[in-house]
Inverse folding.
């Protein structure tokens, strides 16, 4: 039981800044429970928003989920998006000097023009999608779950199979875990989170009666096609970013979370 808690607390301490939690022994593979933990937090704040809002305004409940999740993580993924966008603002001429400048941009705590623009566009997209998309809390929770699963899953694949991803400049948890165990933990996180979302929507009526788009508004095949499309698009994008920066780091994976979230939302709005 204590060992299981170590995995959970390790995953929590990696992604969340508050409340502070420290495992007796840090288990790197516990990081791959992160998508499940973040989905729980998203649902927690979304339900709070749903209970606080007037009936006519309850479609804004997922916004509470995104704001609460981002605050507890210290805008963990958004920071990666901003740093990645700033790195794209560095001209690359296949020289060592320009490559070093790209890497230093990832480490620079200041935000540049590209980073600020990316954050503004990303949050504007979130707010518009929540306000106009009429997507249920539990479908948004799946977006949260699968965007984070996509990023970590592709990170595992790239770190073990692409030489550039195994660069010495890349110092993240991907190099500390076994591929099979980590992928199994990620699969469990994804499957249990999906089961939880479907179970909660079937037990509560508010998502179905209040929103126009919910989990049951598309076939299983449509759900699967959306996930596969996002995996392919996100994989191609990550491959391009890894080739450009000649490394795989947490900022790139954080950016991939945000971009995968956008891809999934577009798929839902288009096909559901």
């Amino acid at each position: 039981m204590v060992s299981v808690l170590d995995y959970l607390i390790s995953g929590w301490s990696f992604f969340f800044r508050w409340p502070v939690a420290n495992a007796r022994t840090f288990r790197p593979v516990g990081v791959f429970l992160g998508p499940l933990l973040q989905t729980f937090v998203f649902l927690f704040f979304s339900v709070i928003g749903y209970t606080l809002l007037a009936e006519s305004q309850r479609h804004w409940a997922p916004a509470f989920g995104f704001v609460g999740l981002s605050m507890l993580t210290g805008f963990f993924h958004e920071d990666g998006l901003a740093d990645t966008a700033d790195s794209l603002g560095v001209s690359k001429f296949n020289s060592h000097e320009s490559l070093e400048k790209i890497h230093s941009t990832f480490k620079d705590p200041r935000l540049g023009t590209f980073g600020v623009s990316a954050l503004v566009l990303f949050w504007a997209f979130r707010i518009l999608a929540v306000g106009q998309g009429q997507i249920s809390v539990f479908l948004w929770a799946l977006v949260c779950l699968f965007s984070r699963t996509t990023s970590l899953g592709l990170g595992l694949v790239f770190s073990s199979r692409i030489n550039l991803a195994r660069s010495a400049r890349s110092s993240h948890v991907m190099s500390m875990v076994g591929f099979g165990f980590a992928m199994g933990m990620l699969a469990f996180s994804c499957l249990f989170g999906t089961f939880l979302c479907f179970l909660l929507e079937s037990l509560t009526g508010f998502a179905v009666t209040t929103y126009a788009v919910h989990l049951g508004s598309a076939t299983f095949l449509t759900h699967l096609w959306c996930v596969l499309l996002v995996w392919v698009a996100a994989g191609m994008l990550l491959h391009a970013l890894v080739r450009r920066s000649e490394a795989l780091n947490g900022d790139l994976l954080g950016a991939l979370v945000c971009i995968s979230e956008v891809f999934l939302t577009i798929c839902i709005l288009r096909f559901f």
Q: What stands out?
A: Residues 138 and 196 are 9 Å apart (CA to CA). The longest helix spans residues 220-245. The chain is about 70% helix and 0% strand.
